[in-house]
Structures are given as structure tokens and as C-alpha cells.
Amino acid sequence: MIFVAPKPKSEPKKLKDDFWKAKDIKISIGEIVEKEGEISEEDTPMGPTPKPHVTDLRSWDMKLLGRYEPFYAPFCDMCCLCTFGKCDLLNKKGACGIDSATQQARIVLLACNIGTAAHAGHARHMINHLIEELGEDYPLDLGLNIDIEAPITRTIIGKKPQNLGDLREVMGYVEEQLSHLLSACHTGQEGSNLDFESKALHSGVMDDLAREVGDIAQIVALNMPKGDEDAPLVEMGVGTIDTDKPVILCIGHNVVPGASIMDYLDETGQEEDFEVCGICCAAIDISRYNDRAKVVGPLSRQLKFIRSGVADVIIVDEQCIRTDVLEEAQKKNTAVIATTDKMCLGLPDMTDEDPDVIVSKLLNKEIDGALILDSEKVGEVSVKIAKILAPEREKLKKLPELDAIQNMASECTECGWCNRVCPNSKPMMEAVVAAGKGDFSGFEKLYLNDVCYSCGRCEQECERELPLMSMLAKVGEKLAKDEKFNIRAGRGPVQDVEIRRVGAPIVLGDIPGVIAIVGCSNYPDGGKEVAEMAREFLERNYIVVATGCGAMSIGEYLDEEGKTLYEQYSGDFDARGLLNIGSCVSNAHISGACIKIANIFAKKPLEGNFEEIADYILNRVGACGVAWGAYSQKAAAIATGVNRWGIPVVVGPHGSKYRRLYLGRTDKKENWKIKDLRTGKVMDGEPAPEHLIYAAENMEEAIVMTAKLCIRPNDTAKGRQIKLNHYIDLYKRYYGRLPPDINLFIRNEKDIPITYKKDVKEILEEMGWEPREIPQEPSLMGMEDD
Amino acid sequence: MANERVIPYQPTVIAGPKQALLVTPETAELMIKKAKRPLFVLGPLVKEEPLLTLAKKIAEKWNLPVVTTADAYKSFKDQGLNSTAYGVVEIVNLLKDPEWQGVNDEGPHDLVIFLGCIYYIGSQGLSSLKHYAPHLKTLTICKFFHSNADASFPNMKDEEWMKYLEKMGSD
Fold first, then answer.
1. Nearest-Cα residue of chain A relative to residue B128
2. Cβ B166 vs Cβ B140: under 8 Å
3. Mean pLDDT throughout A472-477?
């Protein structure tokens, strides 16, 4: 189906020429809104770029790209995209004329487009489904505390969405832009790496929009928590699942099938008789819908849990699902139901079939699994089949005994290839060799905290064909029984009232930063590192927000008293608050919170006013994302989107494989020029934030860099002291000395943290430091080249 | 099998037709001798003994300016080796700029020797230099074959690797 963006009621193109931009003039557009027979007029101050086309924010992008030059790390020297090649781009151009840097930028744009399309496809599915169920006039009511319910939509589209129908209009715009962005990837189109990057940034913001639409729709229509700081605690961990009951496992990102299962159980009074659990964001979202749903854990649990055989039925929807899920499930006689057009798995379409007939065909193995595109039917079929399969599968829920594992392990030839193909270079061979001697401690170390994230590459290389993942799952079985945690259900957006409370301390620097722990699991050294990073920043009065796999990994960390961080810290958007915002689509509320700060605290108009808002965030809002794990194109799109809003991101060492970073150069003073909007003076600035997307080699480096990237030009002296105090403190801990670049962030003596006054002054003296002027309203707007 | 020593340690890292030249400690030393402004980059995988001392000896024998990545700075400082701390992506970003005057501001480096960076991020950094820094050579003396470098030690077991490093650090 092709969706076309509806014609705008206003004529935005007239507002987008250079004259209006140069003068930074705001115009009020009288919009006629027809509602229930009444005609009302609403004056909306409109900025210069409502519904921007691919190139309309290019000037902002070029400002960012001038400061934060793209750093490319090719995976491959070749371009293998068209039949004109293959072309070797190592110090050569391809047959089409493309060079290596431009090709890398093209691949990044392609990755961002894939990520954006994944969220857009999801959001479109959600909107269409909910409109079919509830009608397009269904209102977007996020409760009394949230008036600015769609800050991204308002800023980009230039319109406050009132109902589900308005969200559909937003999706039309996203899809239109996405088709232009994807077309630029075609051979013989864009020829500049910077323009590819500008398009990738636009794609990232389209991703932001799609996520906002998807999450707002599901919050209002499925009555998920609406910015609730006291969202209920939900059970998490393999140990919380009662395997004596039929178990239905949902994998993916789309809440609709899982919600239908919960509804069917409730309607038929069987809610106490079944276990419904989830892996990845489907788990988060189902538990936002119904807190009886349990969270198995992040993405990194997938193969281990499937191999354990605990699930009687696996429901797959879309994104982040093992593509061999059917094959793996069949080994354990677990039924598989596919539920979306994104993943049909070659299964017969049973959507129009009678539920009992589907159950019968599945039980009799007439079909390998079923594709059911009707969510209500998914609910009924999955419950019915789980009920029948569970008693039959009792024996299949058991893995081989430990002595059998030892026998298998003793066959290892120590070829070492399991280690070589491990993405993390973890010591699988050593674990197997020890297990062959009855010592399972190596396997245990790999199992705990998902140090081995069970991708299964090692198994494929094993010359003895040892089922290494099953062996790992067995050894971990006794540990899994203790895996009982609590995660706070995803709360959704930050309330306006919370923004009012903390807007000033964040902008001025009294709250040292907002750390967003997001992205995929598959961490370089297990999930514990993510939780340790969260704890470190919570103890230092930062606000920590989390989504998706990151939110789950944080919940798997217990203190000495056996409490999770969610139980120790409040869910408020305030200093020392730990917020599970929700699933990956809920990431939109993180950039949304930063946008709301600009609007609520600084009174910046949102509608059609992207550049001013992004400029405000870049220079004033000390937020930093941390995406520690490795995996998806969605993560690439999310990070690139938040980068365009002026929010830096620290990624883990695998993040270098996204192939492009945006790195600042502190040795190039001219890159950090800034304009004081109060005086109109262009002056020397500071590298704050120093990078826009940065790959850290290990956790220690990431923690220090994250603290540094929360520094902003607008910090007050008190705020800067607080931020530098943390930066220095952390640098000293991990590097054993004061940061050698401290002089860059001391604007005058008032910025020096009292605790380190003497030491810092000595360094400044050695470096010949001199105080410099502080801009009152730092900005990248209105510079000479604008 | 002989070829197992000279395909990338993580075999999927293979990037294209150009592969690194296999070097022994002797040829690696020749590369250092020939270089006018070499740089030694030490990563977090060598911040424990005995690698710490071996790396320090090599730096001292060849009088190499040292950059430490991640948090390796502290361990080497505790051992009395002064270095400049950069993130691995930061130092690679600087190195690929032919105008950058080097860690001591004495002019662009012409050889970079890597030891102890995490394999896959190291490989990505070497790929950056392979593509965008034709003005310098890269040499890796890790126990892994790095096909994205200009020259690399082969894949080795620890024992053989230690001997290689000892050779490079002894008079």
C-alpha cells in the first residue's frame, strides 16, 4: 500500500525561503479547525520549517557536521551494492564514481533508513489497527499532567495532534520523506558524504517522529501508564516463570498480539492459569499493558531461553527476533505463530481460518507454524494450543543432565574456532575444556549477566558439532532459578510538571545531566556494566532514563540487600531518579523531554521551529545517551536522530561497526566559535559537548566520557563546578590523574570545583590558561555563514 | 594449518583484496628503525602483567612516544611510563589528518604501532587509517593477525607472543 502525505492546509513552502530564515521571523498562521460541526480559529505561531523536506534543515546539519566531522571506519573495502561492481574503494573510486567516504555515508543512510522504516512500519501498523478498532477521532489524552503530548510532532510537523487520525497524517509525512531518503541511496544519486550525512540526520528525525506516533498511540489506546512515576513493578527473570503452567512467549516489538493474548485470558477467566512472558521490547510493552505479563529479559536471552524449552508457544511479531526461531522452536516441539507482515517465516497464512482448525493443524503437524494476521485470533489460538501442548511437552522442558554435558564437552578438540568467531572474543573453548573435566565455572561465568549473548556463532564453527548454546543453557539452568528481579513498568513520557521542576537545574547545570541508557543488549562484557553505569550516575545525582534492553539489564542488578535499582531509586524525572521510559519506541520521550525543556522552561515555540529547539538543546540541555550494546539499524537511526537534536551519544566498542561517528576536534579552535545571541557577538567557544557520537573501548572510558559530554556552554558557574567535579572525580578514579583537558572547560576561576581548586589552578598555571568571556545565550544560529 | 596464522583472527573481519604483510619481530623492528616519527598506541588489553612490562620495555628501547587508549593510562603511569591518553577513535581520528603535528607537536607520525586494543574496535580503527591515512603505515604487534593493518604479527598462542614481545623489547 502506498501512503501519500496529505496536502498541508497552510502553504508552508512560502515560509521556507531564505528571506524568512535569514530574518528569523516568526509568523502566526491562522488555522481553521473544523470540529464536530463547529468552526474555531486557532492562532499557532509557526516557525520557519513545518514539515521540512529532506534538504530544509540542511544548513543546521552542515553546522553540526562542520563541528563534528564524520569519522568513517569501513567494514569492507568494497562496494557490493550494484552490478556495475564489485568495486574496490581502497584509495580508488568505484565504477559509478563514488569514493570510500561517500560510500560509507551512503551505507549509514541506508542503515538509518532501515531503522526508521522498522519503526515507521510498526507505527503505521499500530495506527491502522487502532483506528480500525477505535476510530480516527479517538482522542490523544495523556492525562492532566501532560499538555505537550507530542513535542517532536509539534516541532517537526508544526501541528498539535488531537486524535489518532492526526497521527496517521504524521505517518504520511514520514513515509513520504523516507521514500526520498531511500531513493538517494540508489546508484548514481547523492555524491557528497556530507549530504548523505545530512540525509541520515533527517532520517533519524523521521525515526523520532515514527517512534513518538507509535508510542503515543499505544499509550492512549491501550491505556498504558501516562507518565506515571509510580508505574507498577513487574516481575522479571527466568526464575519468575512458573513452568508448571502453560507458557506463552512473545518476542519482538509489537504489543498488539501480546495484548490480545492477555485480553483473551481475561475474557475466558484463565488469567491465573497461564504464564505470558516476553523477550525484548514486546516484553516491556505487554507489561505496560498488563502488569501480570512477565519479562524474561533482554534480547541477549533469546536463544538460551528458546533452547531451554520452557515456552510452549512462541509468538513472534517484528524486529530483533532470531530469524531461525522456527527451526529452533521445532527442536523443542514449541509451536510458532507469526503475526505481522514483517516476519512470515514461510508459514501458511491462516488468518481467515477457524481458530480450532488452526489449533488442530498445528497439533497434528500438518503445518510447521501459522501466520495469523488477526490479533484477536492470535490470542485465542495461542492460549488454546499452549493449554494442550504444555502437558505433552513436560519432558521437553528439560535439558540434558550435567553429566551428559560433561561427556559432550570432553569431545572438544581445542581447535579454538569457537573463540575466534565469538563477536566478543569470549573464552568459550576454555569453558568447554573445563566442563569436560567436570568444572562448569567457565560456562557459569559466560551465562551470568549475559556475558555470552548466545548468538550461536560458536556452534556453527564447532568441528564436533557440540550444541554449545544448549550446554550453556543447561549449566545456567540452576542459576536461572535465582533470576528473580523487578522492573518498573515503562512509564511513557515525562510530565510537564516534572519538566517545570527540573528544567532550570538541568539547563543551568545544577543537575549534572540526564543520562539515557538505551539501545540493544549484546554488551561487550555483559549486562552488569550497564547497571553499574546507571548506579554510578544515580549516586552522583544525575537523572537516569532507560528504555528497552537497557532498562531490563538495569533491573537485573541486585544490591547487597537483594534490591534492584528500580526499588532503590524513585521513578521521578528528578535528580537520582531512575525512569524506565518504556520500549525502544518510547525513546521518543527522551528527546521529547529535552524539547519540552526548551518549550516549558525557555518558552521557545515548538511548531515548525526545529533549528532553534535543537540549538537550545545542544547548548543548554546536558543530556547524553549511552547505547552500550551492539545490534540493530534501529539503534543507528535512533542515535542519528538524537544527534540532530543536539544530544550526544556514547556507544560501546561494537558501535565502531556502525561505521560512522561524529567526532569533535579540540585542537581546532575555529570549530568551536559560538554566538552570544544576547550581544550578537561571535566568540571563542568550548568543546561542549565534545563529540556527538563516540565509541568508547571499555566501560571505564565510557563513564568518564559520558560525564564530560554533559557539559554545556550555558552552564552557570555553580553548575559547571558540579559537572567538572564529577568529571574530575571519575577521571581521577580511572586514569589516576586530573583530566589534561580541564583547561578547556574552565571559563573563569568561578568554574573551578572547590574540592580540586588547588590542583586545577596548578594545571591552569602550567598551561598558561587565561579566563575567557562567557556567552550569555550561546548559539550556533545566526553565525556569519548562515 | 599455516594459513590460520595469517587470516584475520576474527575471520569475518576480512575486508577486501589488500591484506596485511606478515611480520616477525625482526621485520617489525626494521619498520620502526626506518620510521622518522613513529607512535606507539597501547590499549587496555595490556594493562596487566606481564604485558605491561613487555610493552614498557619496547617503548623505552625504541624511545617511542606513547598513546594509551581507554583507561590504560593509569596502569602505565603507575609503572613509570608517561603517555598521552586518548580514546582509540580519537587518536585514529587525529592520525588520519595529515596536518596533525603528532603527540609531541613535532610533525605528522609516519608509523603507528598498535598493541592491546580490543580486536574489533582496533580493526575498525585500522580500517579507517587504511582508507584515509595513506601518509602513514600501521603495524600491529598483538597476538592476532590484523588484516586491516599494513603489517601484523600472525595469530599466536600466548607463549609465542610473549617471546615476540620480549625480542622487540630486549637489547
1. A73
2. no
3. 93
Residues of B in contact with A653 (CB under 8 A): 118, 120-121
Report the percent of chain A where pLDDT is more than 90: 90
Q: How confident is the model at residue A481 (pLDDT cuts 50, 70, 90)?
A: confident
Residues 6+ apart with CB under 8 A from A190: A102, A106, A184, A196, A199
Lowest-confidence range among A136-145, A614-623, A695-704?
A136-145
Task: Please indicate whether, in this complex, the C-beta atoms of A698 and B70 are within 8 angstroms of each other.
Answer: yes
What's the rounded Cα separation, in Å, for the pair A530 and A517?
Answer: 8
Question: A654 and chain B: CB distance < 8 Å anywhere?
Answer: yes
Decide if pLDDT at B2 tops 90. no
Confidence (pLDDT) at A43 = 63
pLDDT tens figures, A402-431:
999 999 999 999 999 999 999 999 999 999
A694/B87 CB distance under 8 A = yes
Looking at every residue in chain B, the average pLDDT score rounds to 96
* Predicted pLDDT at A37: 40
DSSP state, residue A397: G
Q: A73 and B127 in contact by Cβ < 8 A?
A: yes
- Helices in A556-660 by DSSP H: which ranges? 565-568, 588-596, 610-620, 633-644
Q: Name the band, by pLDDT with cuts 50, 70 and 90, for residue A28.
A: very low
A665 with A769: CB under 8 angstroms? Answer: no
Q: Is the pLDDT of residue A34 over 70?
A: no
* Residues comprising chain B, all counted: 171
How far out from the chain centre does Cα A37 lie?
Answer: 42
DSSP A490: P
Distance in angstroms (rounded) separating the CA atoms of residues A515 and A509 = 13
Residue in B44, B124, B134 closest to A656 by CB:
B124
Residues 6+ apart with CB under 8 A from A34: none
Q: Is B80 on the interface with A (CB under 8 A)?
A: no
* Residue A35: how many other CB atoms lie within 10 Å: 10
Interface residue A461 vs chain B (CB under 8 A) = no
- Distance (Å, whole) CA B62 – CA A394: 66
Percent of all residues in chain A with a pLDDT value above 70, rounded to a whole number: 94
Nearest CB partner across the interface for A736, out of B43, B74, B132 = B74
Most B CBs within 10 Å: which of A735, A737, A744, as the mutation test of the B interface?
A: A735
Chain CA centroid to CA A501, Å: 26
> Quick one: closest CA in B to A100, which residue?
B131
Which pTM does this prediction carry?
A: 0.94
| B6: contact with A, CB 8 A cutoff | no
Tell me whether the omega of the peptide bond preceding residue A294 falls within 30 degrees of 0, making it cis: no
Q: Is A683 exposed, middle or buried (0-12, 13-18, 19+ CB in 10 A)?
A: middle
Q: Is the pLDDT of residue A66 over 90?
A: yes
What mean pLDDT do residues B105-114 have?
A: 98
Distance from CA of A555 to the nearest CA of B (A): 27
CA of A119, closest CA in chain B: separation in Å? 28
Res A727 pLDDT > 90? yes
Nearest by CB: A76 against B16, B92, B119: B16
- Grid cell 522492573 in the structure block, residue: A487
